[in-house]
Specification:
The chain is built from 10 helices and 37 strands. Residues 508-691 form the Peptidase S9 prolyl oligopeptidase catalytic domain.
């Protein structure tokens, strides 16, 4: 394969050897940043990972803190700012994971992390705001390990997670199990109260993905011995990410716009902690922000004890907001006692021809006692397909007009357009910011042959405006070009102008090989709010495939694409749409790649790890007799297909079981045209999951 690409630049071997940059964290005083560098792919040998450290206001200051001999991950600054805590398998490489601490004062003398010695393997952890404790989850050990040869009784998919919640004390150096929790349930997430005396955690029936679509209970418990948990509410399905418990007395989290919906835009939900026990999907004191026309997809707590307001009445979070193909990060400020101005929104950062790498960002608010001024720092992994810039860590420091220690930013009515009709208190200050590029990872991408990347918009027949990304060889002059329709997965994902080829993203790879590559944001995608995302509930093929095919028609109309040389490809839901399109059009596309895609939606509901989600996408329930009147799966219409179809699948895929690939291949071999039969090929990768 590399011979096609001359073995250099954007080619399979370079992609396979590349790294990803993630898990960005800012120090409490905002002066330093840590992050993680991980091999994108690893063979049968154990996973390794490096932790890097950078100075916020010094360009190209990133340097290794650990050297990649072990799996060092999930690094965070201690609240006092003097050390870094992280998970590692240093004692038993590839096996048990303990917590380690590095004193930043010792970094110049070499990395000598101290093991905390918890005595059990750590899954997830979070430091208390006062820095005195660490809450962590761990797999409980059993004196009677099950015999792998024993039969297993299947009870609605439940496999007890055996996770327990512990608290480690820095003072005593010992851990204590949190009593009273019903450990027959799966601990989905946990977070600290602002004073560090309580934990807030969510429980669901099982750890498997299907239980994220069922009721989730939220409880609080004191870390004092013999304390009993208190149930404060429930959700109709799992929120996205963890809750944040703020000094202002609010609990915030991300849920779907209508919390019961499996397919919908994400929005920010705000609850008062004094709300009586209720369903947190809907409460009398609930506020929903974002989600109407753009989507809130990630939140972080911006405040750190000792560096923010001492009055204990305020809280501040940062929100990542997807707006079509752009992203902006807002600070949302909450106040406990001011009922008229409950919150204010402060825009911090907006992408400009670039993209944030899958949640790899952080934001922090701090007060400098020496200057009596406050500051905000945003740090993010950014890449740009438009400028051919590979993913690297950038910092943005904002210094002016953001309030003082005891008077954070106050809301003001903007003179311009209000972006969210349910947010009356938007705040548009005049901010001064300085931006630094801190790292130089993935330089091979910078040196590779450039790819031309641009964003286009067009209208479909019903008047809906769509967006998509077009990539092509930078040297292309002879249009129209052979064209590949490359479809994103999800469906609740989106295509953005990033620059990072990887195992299920062949856009840049194909563009450097001479193809025009088009990637539409079809209805059901992220970034356009509730109505746009909820359209996916009408079922696969109702809007998504017609939207994808409309982009093909648009680039043909513009004279960019050769209508006689078309291909289609995608991974996960992109693979499902590829199978859908190929079996619907029969011969419009000369070639197709179905990567980990579904071909039989009844089978997906019966066998997939996420049956409720697959039912929502396919709009087909195998136990509903009425549904059998609709043949809406690709396997039902493979007859007459002449497109050459390459099917790729992992044999350990739980999200889309490998039988979906085998069924499509068998159908093509039996019902396609002779050309389609000869062109059908199935490749199954041993040991590989969904992605």
């Amino acid at each position: 394969m590399d011979s096609i690409f001359n073995g250099k630049g954007i080619c399979p071997s370079n992609i396979a050897a590349t790294q990803k940059v993630r898990n960005v964290k800012i120090s409490p005083n905002t002066k330093q940043i840590i992050y993680q560098v991980v091999p994108f792919y690893k063979g049968p040998e154990r996973m390794t990972s490096e932790i890097w450290l950078a100075d916020t206001d010094v360009a190209e200051s990133a340097r290794r803190l650990t050297h990649g001999l072990f799996n060092d991950r999930s690094a965070v600054f201690h609240p006092d700012g003097n050390s870094v805590i992280f998970v590692s398998d240093r004692q038993q490489p590839g096996k048990a994971k303990d917590l380690y601490q590095i004193l930043l004062s010792d970094v110049e003398d070499g990395c000598n992390p101290r093991i905390l010695g918890l005595g059990r393997s750590v899954q997830e952890f979070e430091l208390s705001p006062d820095g005195q404790h660490i809450a962590y989850s761990s797999v409980r050990t059993s004196s009677a390990e099950p015999d792998p040869c024993d039969a297993k009784v299947y009870r609605d998919g439940i496999q007890n997670s055996s996770l327990s919640l512990w608290v480690y004390s820095f003072d005593t150096g010992r851990s204590r199990l949190i009593d009273g929790i019903d450990y027959t349930y799966h601990i989905e997430s946990f977070t600290w109260s602002p004073d560090g005396f309580e934990l807030l955690y969510r429980l669901r029936k099982g750890k498997e993905a299907e239980f994220s679509e069922r009721e989730v209970t939220i409880q609080r418990v004191s870390i004092a011995p013999e304390s009993l948990p208190v149930t404060i509410g429930s959700y109709p399905r799992s929120p996205s990410g963890s809750n944040i418990w703020l000094d202002s007395g609010h609990i915030v989290e991300l849920q779907n716009y209508e919390p019961r919906n499996s397919l919908d835009a994400r929005a920010l939900f705000v609850h008062n902690i004094s709300t009586p026990r209720s369903r947190l999907g809907r409460t009398k004191r609930l506020k929903r922000l974002y989600g109407d026309f753009e989507d809130a997809v990630r939140i972080v707590d911006m405040q750190t004890k000792g560096y923010t307001s001492e009055n204990g009445e305020s809280g501040m979070i940062a929100v990542e907001v997807c707006s079509d193909v752009d992203t902006h990060i807002d600070a949302v400020y909450f106040h406990r006692n001011d009922s008229h101005h409950l919150f204010a929104v402060l825009p911090l950062f907006r992408t400009q021809g670039e993209a944030i790498w899958f949640g790899a960002w952080d934001a922090k608010y701090a007060f400098d006692s020496a200057t009596s001024k406050s500051t905000i720092v945003v740090a993010a992994v950014l890449s740009s397909g438009i400028r051919n810039e590979p993913p690297n860590v950038w910092s943005i420091r904002i210094n002016e007009n953001i309030g003082t220690r005891d008077s954070p930013p106050r809301p003001a009515i903007p003179s311009g357009d209000i972006r969210w009709h349910d947010v009356p208190n938007l705040y548009y200050p005049s901010l001064s910011s300085v931006r630094y590029k801190l790292s130089s990872h993935l330089d091979w991408l910078k040196r590779a042959e450039s790819v031309r990347t641009e964003v286009i918009h067009w209208l479909v027949d019903d008047g809906t405006k769509l967006s998509g990304i077009v990539r092509s060889p930078s040297s292309a002059v002879n249009y129209p070009l052979p064209t590949v329709l490359f479809i994103h997965g999800g469906p609740y994902r989106r295509d953005i102008p990033d620059y990072m080829p990887y195992f299920c993203n062949w856009r840049e790879l194909l563009a450097t090989a001479g193809y025009l590559v088009i990637s539409p944001n079809y209805r059901g995608s992220q970034g356009r709010g509730h109505a746009f995302a909820y359209a996916a509930n009408q079922g696969i093929g109702a809007h998504d495939w017609p939207d994808c095919e409309s982009m093909v028609d648009e680039v043909i109309r513009r004279g960019w694409a050769d209508p006689t040389r078309l291909a289609v490809a995608g991974w996960s839901h992109g693979g499902s749409l590829t199978a859908w399109g190929v079996t619907l059009t029969k011969n419009r596309f000369k070639a197709a790649v179905v990567g980990a895609g579904a071909s039989n939606w009844e089978g997906m509901v019966m066998e997939s790890g996420s049956p409720e989600l697959e039912k929502a996408i396919g709009q087909r329930d195998p136990w509903d007799c009425e549904a059998h009147r609709r043949n809406i799966s690709p396997v039902h219409r493979v007859d007459g297909v002449s497109t050459a179809v390459l099917i790729l699948h992992g044999d350990k895929d739980e999200r889309v079981p490998v039988g979906q690939a085998i069924g499509l291949y068998r159908g093509l071999q039996r019902k396609a045209t002779e050309t389609g039969k000869r062109g059908a090929e199935l490749v199954i990768y041993p040991r590989e999951p969904h992605g």
